[in-house]
Design a protein that fits this description.
Blueprint lengths: L1 H11 L16 H11 L3 E5 L4 H8 L2 H8 L23 E4 L6 H15 L4 E7 L6 H13 L3 E7 L2 E2 L2 E2 H4 L5 H5 L5 E5 L4 H18 L3 E6 L20 H8 L3 H11 L4 H24 L18
Parallel strand pairs: 1-2, 1-3, 3-4, 4-8, 7-8
Antiparallel strand pairs: 5-6
Helix pairs in contact: 2-3, 2-9, 4-12, 5-6
Bound molecules: thiamine diphosphate.
C-alpha cells in the first residue's frame, strides 16, 4: 500500500495540487512495515522527515495521509503540517520532524512514560544514518541505556545524508560496533526482506522486555528517488550504477509479491488485491481534493497542547 501511495504521488505531484515538499520512502518501505507490524498495537513510533512509510505502516490510513499532503481539513493535522509532520497519536504515530534527529528524544520521552505507565509498550525512533552524526542521537542512546528504557532505535541505513556517504562523514568504521559498547542489544539486517525485518524486530522486542534494556536495529536499505522530490536520480554523480542495480534487483515489494506467488497464490488473486489497493488510494486522493482547506481560525488550533 505504501508503494502504491508513493507511485500515485509521483504521478500527480507535477499537477502542483500538493504544495508540501516530498521526502519519499520508495525503496526503503520494508523497514517501516517490518518494524511497525512487529510492534503491532503495542508501540509508539516517531519518524524522521522521510515519514511516509512509517506513517502508513503505523496507521494504515491513506485517507488522512492524502488529505494532509493536499493541505485539506481531512488531513491528519487538518492540512496544516504537510508531509514532514505526520502524526496520529491515538494510533501510536507520535510524529515526524524536519529537523534531522529531533524525533529521537521525543521517542525516548515516550519510552520513559511507557516504562512508568504502560509496561510492555515500546517506543521506536526511526531515523536515517545521517541522524547518527547528531549529538542528540548519542545523548538519547546514552540516557536510554543508562535508564533501561523500553526503547528501540531504528536506523534506516541508506548510507547517504543527502549526497554524502557515511565514509565521508564519520570518523569511525562501523556504527554498529560503536553502539555495541552501550548497554543495549544490537541487531543488523541487510536483506530488504520485510519478513526478515519483522522477525528481527520480534526478537528485539522480546529482548527489550526480558532484559529491560533498549535495542538498536541497523537496517541497510536504499532510497530510490532524489533526497527531496519525486524524481528518480539514478544518473546523478553521487549514485553508483552497480549499487542501484543491486538494490532494485532485490526490491522489497517485488520480493514479497514473488513470495506470495511461490506460496501458491494465483497471479489473478494478487492482481485483484493490487487493484483494490489502487482503487482505495484513488478514492483517498479524490476525497482529499474535494475537502476544504483549513480556515484562518483553524490555523491557531492545535499549535500548543491544551490539557483535556
Ligand atoms: C539538524 C539538521 N541539520 C541539517 C538538516 C538538513 N538535512 C536535511 S536532510 C539531511 C540528511 C539526512 O540524512 P539521513 O538522516 O541519513 O536521512 P535520509 O535522508 O537518508 O533518509 C540533512 C543534513 C536538517 N534538516 N536538520
Amino acid at each position: 500500500m505504501t508503494r502504491r501511495c508513493e507511485e500515485t504521488i509521483v504521478r500527480i505531484y507535477p499537477d502542483d495540487e500538493m504544495k508540501t515538499p516530498m521526502h519519499m520512502s520508495m525503496g526503503q518501505e520494508a523497514v517501516a512495515v517490518g518494524v511497525c507490524r512487529a510492534l503491532g498495537n503495542n508501540g509508539d513510533v516517531v519518524a524522521s522527515y522521510r515519514s511516509h512509510a512509517t506513517y502508513l505502516a503505523q496507521t494504515e490510513d491513506h485517507g488522512s495521509f492524502f488529505g494532509e499532503l493536499h493541505g485539506r481539513v481531512n488531513g491528519t493535522a487538518d492540512g496544516k503540517s504537510g508531509s514532514m509532520h505526520l502524526a496520529d497519536i491515538p494510533k501510536g504515530m507520535l510524529g515526524s520532524t524536519g529537523i534531522v534527529a529531533a524525533g529521537i528524544p521525543v521517542a525516548v520521552g515516550a519510552a520513559f512514560a511507557n516504562k512508568q505507565n504502560s509496561p510492555g509498550r515500546i517506543a521506536a525512533a526511526f531515523f536515517g544514518d545521517g541522524a547518527t552524526d547528531e549529538g542528540v542521537f548519542w545523548e538519547s542512546l546514552n540516557v536510554s541505556c543508562a535508564m533501561g528504557l523500553p526503547m528501540m532505535f531504528v536506523c534506516e541505513d541508506n548510507d547517504l545524508a543527502v549526497h554524502t556517504r557515511k565514509s565521508h562523514r564519520q570518523g569511525f568504521n562501523s556504527l554498529v560496533e560503536v553502539v555495541k559498547k552501550y548497554r543495549c542489544s544490537v541487531y543488523e539486517d541487510d536483506t530488504n526482506d520485510v519478513e526478515s525485518i519483522y522477525a528481527m524486530t520480534r526478537s528485539a522486542i522480546a529482548q527489550i522486555i526480558a532484559m529491560g534494556t533498549p535495542a538498536f536495529l541497523n537496517v541497510k536499505t536504499y532510497r530510490y528517488l532524489e533526497p527531496c522530490g519525486t524524481t528518480m536520480d539514478s544518473d546523478a554523480p553521487y549514485r553508483r550504477a552497480e549499487e542501484d542495480a543491486y538494490w532494485k534487483g532485490r526490491d522489497c515489494v517485488a520480493l514479497q509479491r514473488a513470495r506470495l506467488l511461490a506460496n501458491g497464490l494465483a497471479e489473478k488473486d494478487v492482481v485483484a488485491v493490487e487493484n483494490e489497493i489502487n482503487a482505495a488510494i484513488l478514492a483517498s486522493v479524490a476525497a482529499a481534493k474535494a475537502a476544504a482547506h483549513p480556515t484562518p481560525q483553524q490555523l491557531y488550533y492545535g499549535v500548543f497542547y491544551e490539557a483535556p
